[in-house]
From TrEMBL:
Belongs to the RecF family. This is DNA replication and repair protein RecF. Keywords: ATP-binding, Cytoplasm, DNA damage, DNA repair, DNA replication, DNA-binding, Nucleotide-binding, SOS response. The lineage of its organism: Bacteria, Bacillati, Bacillota, Bacilli, Lactobacillales. It comes from Dellaglioa algida DSM 15638. Residues 2-344 form the RecF/RecN/SMC N-terminal domain.
Length: 377
């Protein structure tokens, strides 16, 4: 799918914008604070009904105005669909084919985007919780059973942690109820670990292909699921369940002392390895950025498998952190495959010559000027 055109009315620093895009690569070029990220954000809001930068929708409305409107025409296999998001002081409205949707959740899924912003580097450099959230959100989006298991697991975990805290104050500790909770936790936990391992294998396959393309096969990217469970990848769900039950039993004393559950997938992590070495510890800035990019871009292929259509890719200021070789191969990898919007303060010569006829827009204080094709170097 691709975004044919976009209209913005009183959105951030855009008063009145009407623009048509290329189905291939669109470059948004401009100095700092001109509205590059605002434009990507508008496309993201058109997809997700909310911003990736703020939870406060009112920030999206141009200062001194009362409502912001985003309209887009999305080209899909079955035809073109007009979409609209309106934001005002009372809330939001979402329209598909000019018809207002009763719920925002009904709207989501009409137009799929994948956004890569500088903050996504946390996927590699950040704490394990960032990677768990990524896996849970991405996998949850494409697998309803996983989302269900996760919901159940979280509820039981909360209950179990509360009970562990209660046990701290009891002289005669009755562990029967704790055993019941441990049993339930182990059952959902085992399934979650099993499903995560399958999902990560799929993601690893695509992420490694991208890493190899971007680095010209200099780097092989592999994933390692870090868990206290032994040989997790070779275990059946029943075996994982038995192990988890056992680990919870062994940890009971410590768990009561600390008032929290010490074993289970809520403490697991994913490690990204380049040529066998953990990129979080040993990777250069460029390698870490490429890894985060490959992992995130791998979602494009998973989404295609799931929905039958490629999503639209939004890359916020990604080029400047990569050397010429990585830039070149990244652009080669994505061109002719997905519609891409790419913001950058300056376009290096190499990117200009290598992209197949990109549409280049110069952004200046909320105004867009399209560069004529013949002016491209
Ligand atoms: N609600 C709003 N109304 C009007 N202007 C706004 C609003 N919100 C933000 N702005 C303005 O938008 C500009 C920032 O735009 P944006 O974040 O898109 O910058 P950018 O071009 O991506 O810059 P950088 O390269 O620094 O990331 C700032 O000048 C800011 O004052």
């Amino acid at each position: 799918m691709y975004l044919e055109s976009l209209t913005l009315r009183d959105y951030r620093n855009y008063e009145d914008l009407n623009v048509s895009f290329s189905p291939a690569i669109n470059i948004l070029l401009g100095e700092n604070a001109q509205g590059k990220t605002n434009l990507l954000e508008a496309i993201y809001v058109l997809s997700m009904t909310r911003s990736h930068r703020t939870n406060n929708d009112k920030e999206l409305i141009k200062w001194d105005k009362t409502a912001a409107i985003i309209q887009g025409r999305v080209n899909k296999q079955l035809g073109t669909v007009p979409l609209e998001i309106q934001v005002n002081s009372k809330g939001k409205k979402a329209k598909v084919n000019h018809l207002e949707q009763a719920k925002l959740s009904q709207y989501i899924g009409q137009f799929n985007v994948i956004l890569f912003a500088p903050e996504d580097l946390a996927l590699v450099k950040g704490a394990p919780a960032v990677r768990r959230r990524f896996v849970d959100m991405e996998f949850g989006q494409i697998n309803a059973r996983y989302l269900y298991n996760l919901g159940q697991y979280r509820t039981i975990l909360k209950q179990r942690n509360q009970y562990l805290k209660q046990l701290q104050h009891k002289k005669n500790q009755d562990l029967v109820f704790l055993d019941v909770l441990s049993d339930q936790l182990a059952a959902f936990g085992a399934e979650i670990v099993h499903q995560r391992l399958i999902f990560l294998k799929q993601l690893e396959f695509w992420a490694n292909q991208l890493q190899e393309e971007i680095t010209q096969s200099a780097e092989t990217l592999t994933f390692e699921y870090a868990t206290h469970l032994e040989d997790a990848a070779d275990q059946t769900i029943e075996q994982l369940y038995a192990q988890l039950q056992n680990d919870l039993k062994k940890a009971t004393k410590k768990e009561i002392f600390q008032g929290t559950t010490l074993a289970g997938p809520h403490r697991d992590d994913v490690r990204f390895l380049i040529n066998g070495k953990n990129v979080q510890t040993y990777g250069s800035q460029g390698q870490q950025r490429t890894t985060a990019l490959s992992v995130k871009l791998a979602e494009i292929e998973l989404m295609k498998e799931e929905t039958g259509e490629y999503p639209v890719l939004l890359l916020d200021d990604v080029l400047s952190e990569l050397d010429d070789m990585r830039q070149t191969h990244l652009l080669k990898t994505i061109q002719n495959k997905v519609q891409t919007f790419l913001t950058t303060p300056n376009l290096s010569g190499i990117a200009r010559t290598l992209i197949n006829e990109p549409k280049i827009f110069h952004i200046n204080q909320g105004n867009l000027l399209e560069e004529e094709e013949h002016t491209v170097d």
